[in-house]
Design goal:
Helix content: under 10%
Number of strands: 11
Distance between the termini: 40 Å
Structural class: mainly beta
Order of helices and strands: EEEEEEEEEEE
Length: about 120
């Protein structure tokens, strides 16, 4: 199992920046992938960005060019740098850690951190 804890959310004006952090309870090398998802009120949870153990990265089209996912393996932490924030980026952001054991996948979620983009 793995526990993940997010931090770094808050209120920011449109055009501003935030950096989210997600600390994992075990080495991220042991994980298949870590990623960020978000859920806005009345909407389904959606993928924002994911990075795999092989360093493959995927972004949602809506955040490409504005958000950057990165890792610090020494700290077992994944970051999401968010620039040029828009009101539509407002959501609860969740960190996800995925483990793969043979044919089984296991997803572990953090408690979420609120990001509000508003003037």
């Amino acid at each position: 199992q793995v526990q993940v804890v997010e931090s770094g959310g808050g209120l920011v004006q449109p055009g501003g920046s935030l950096r989210l952090s997600c600390a994992a309870s075990r080495s991220i090398f042991s994980l298949y992938a870590m990623g960020w998802y978000r859920q806005a009120p009345g909407k389904q949870r959606e993928l924002v960005a994911v990075i795999t153990s092989g360093s493959s990265i995927e972004y949602a089209d809506s955040v490409k060019g504005r958000f950057t996912i990165s890792t610090d393996t020494a700290k077992n932490t994944v970051y999401l740098r968010m620039n040029s924030l828009k009101p539509e980026d407002t959501a609860v952001y969740f960190c996800n850690a995925r483990m793969v054991d043979g044919v089984s996948e296991y997803d572990y979620w953090g408690q979420g951190t609120q990001v509000t983009v508003s003037s």
